[in-house]
Amino acid sequence: MDTPEPLIDAHVHVFCWGENPREGFLSARTRRAWLTRLLLRRSGVHKEEGKTISERFRSRLLRQVNQSQLDKVVVLAQDGVYRDDGSRDDSATHFYVSNDYVLDLAGRSHKILPGCSINPIRRDALAELQRVCEAGCRLVKIHTAIQGVDPALARFDAFYRRAADLGVVLMFHTGYEHSCTVRSQSFADPARLARPLGHGGAVIAAHCGTCAWFDPEDHFPSFLRMMRRHENLYGDTAIMASLIRFRSLWRLAREESGIVSRILHGSDYPFPPARLPFVLRTGPFPPERRNGLDMDLRIKRSFGFGPRYACRLMDLLCTF
Ligand SMILES: [Zn+2]
Predict the structure, then answer these.
(1) C-alpha 1 – ligand 1 centre gap (Å)
(2) In-domain check, residue 23
(3) Alpha helix locations (H) across 123-246?
(4) Which of 21, 120, 261, 307 has fewest C-beta within 10 Å?
(5) What is the pLDDT of residues 29-75, one digit of tens each?
């Protein structure tokens, strides 16, 4: 009998509270925000093992990943905001997780793959790309809206070319961002990804350009146009089972097979999926409800993105 293909979640976050800012931090403003406090309370993180909040976040992540039916998860770092001269601007950075922190996490569980984050504005962006690649990282995230990166700028060509040469997949945040202070929402339009796509490497549009029902724009049609134009573009389903975007899963599932076959599973853990809109698909008390990673996978698999939906990312990380 063939061994089943590994199930992989492309989009998992870890947070650092800031006890050791070199590892990562949330700004005072982010720590005070209602969404952060709600997430802290709902996650039950205070009951986890650890002396600091960051240690408890980490314990919870490791425990839930190890208990999950998933075989691998990509845990994402989050680079800071940089000035035009390429130096990091900590006063403008509200959410930071260092690359070394996720590289260290990957050493603590065989299920964790490091998803480093490099703001291409930084002075040493190429050297950092080389360094994390040598440390085993095959996916690098750029948060367009929070990190203030317009992916369409020609000054990033050398970075994109090097990523394509190294076989490092680039993930860009697309769609409106709601969980953290942003530099510009306009950078999150998938139409701006033509430049990195032109270098030929695999590019993932996180969240498929979807926005919440109350946002002034919807970047999903732009994501579909880009998918039809570029065969090396993929989309992940992170946050799409949340209450403010739940309709987006139905919209995406209606698209043609050429698009659906390049949709990758991503949860956006620790943001929990909403259960109510999907109750007819999962039943009221699915066994997966005890683990946010498993529950998110259960919901999204019910939309018929194909039998390889939760395995596809492995192809990109191994062979692209
Ligand atoms: Zn995310």
Answers:
(1) 36
(2) yes
(3) 125-134, 144-147, 157-166, 194-197, 220-229
(4) 307
(5) 899 888 888 888 877 888 899 999 999 999 999 999 999 999 999 99
